[in-house]
Amino acid sequence: MRTWFWTLLVLTLAVALAVFLRETSGNVLVMVNDLRIEVSLAFAVMSLVMLFVGLYVLLRLLSWLIAIPSRLRAWNDRRVSKKEHELLEQGWTELLVGRYSHAEKDLTRLFDQTRSANRQVLAALSAARAAHALGEFERRDQLIARARETANTDTALNEAVITAAADLYLDQGEPQLALDSLLPLQQSGARHVHTLRLLLRAYRQLNQHEKVFELTRSLSRRTALPASEASQMITTAAAALIRAGQHDDSWRKIWKELKTEERTAADVALAAAEANESLGQFDEAAAILEQAIVVSYDPRLLSAYARSDAKHVARRLEKAESWLEKRPEDPDLLATLGTLCLQGQIWGQAEHYLQRSVARRNDARVHALLGSLYDRLNRPQDATRHWRKATAVGAALPVLAADEALPAADTHLDPRLVYSEGLHDLPDTAQSLQPMTSSATYRTHDAEDYFDSAPIPYVAEGQVSDPSDKTNIPPATKQMG
Q1: In sequence order, what DSSP letters do the residues of 11-74 get, joined into one string?
Q2: Superfamily of structural domain 308-396
Q3: pLDDT one-digit tens code per residue, 330-369
Q4: Matching fold, domains 80-152 and 308-396
């Protein structure tokens, strides 16, 4: 568009000048010392125009000739840059595909070839990631050091080196190294989302729950974390902080910072209830558990709610019975009611609720509670039966039939057993231990090939037993005879 505009403008001026010169007559006199030159106005104007055009073309030609070396250098730089970009793209492609050894080789070659600081840093960090994937951590650290040295004082490149190195350290399971790398960056005022996420990962691996709580709150406000993930991390960190501070009452600060939906999370409610119970505030603990049970209804909350002394059983039992109206077939709630009745020594109701619970789900804990109840009521047979069921359910034990015996031991490979014709005088039980032979011999099988847990008849070496003499028969065999 600009080309057409300037072309049209030049043509318009040329036409206007031609019309002007045609309509205007006159001469131009040029005097240089004694030299006098007189030409027409049109000729003078056209001469000036041609002189201007000639000078312009000459200057452009000279400029083009002078710029040949720089253009040659630029062309060579473009060619080299194109090759380096192709090598960088090839290395990245191999890195993404998983050909880590080829990627590291190409990217390291690019680092040695290029003179661009940006491409050197990118190549070194990418090669470090490939070496990390190959498990070559020493070589990875060398590449990271070369990238850091190349970045020098460039702020953007330094941040790239720090974050890439921290990501690799966290992937290796070295959160302290990652934290040592990221802290200077954070102290310098960097508040990038990716940096904060890396810090969050490091603090989580180091179990620094207070930092996890703060960073998760910050990232959640910036919508940099999914709501479900942020909620889970906040509740986990808050629960850990409450448990850690329940002995010095410092947990209340964290409890006040929690939102309502976070207080009713199962882990947080359990930790807060334990903290209140440790301070003897059982009513507050019960209120926390009740609010959480209404929202999340976790079996762990019911189990914690069932732990109560006799003074607070009545209140909790009334509340649990109101829940039972909405969930009459829930085995966890029935077990909770049974446990509360046991602690309140309401034996009949305890048996009723526990029997209903175990009828709906075969639970080892409920069987154990029934065993304890029947033992308290002096019903040893029922107590033993439920304790056995609790053991069988908890350990997944096989049930053996009472009217079957283990098979007879296989002793035919025992190298120390001697058979003789006199064995036919023994009872059938003894004869079943081994087939009869016509002469007294020793087995020549290796002892390592034989294994048996049953008692084996033994005859000392060099001693031949007389079939009619039973004095040489071992005690076990005498008894059988």
Answers
A1: HHHHHHHHHHHHH---EEEEEETTEEEEEEHHHHHHHHHHHHHHHHHHHHHHHHHHTHHHHHHH
A2: Tetratricopeptide repeat domain (1.25.40.10)
A3: 999 999 999 999 988 899 999 999 999 999 998 889 999 9
A4: yes
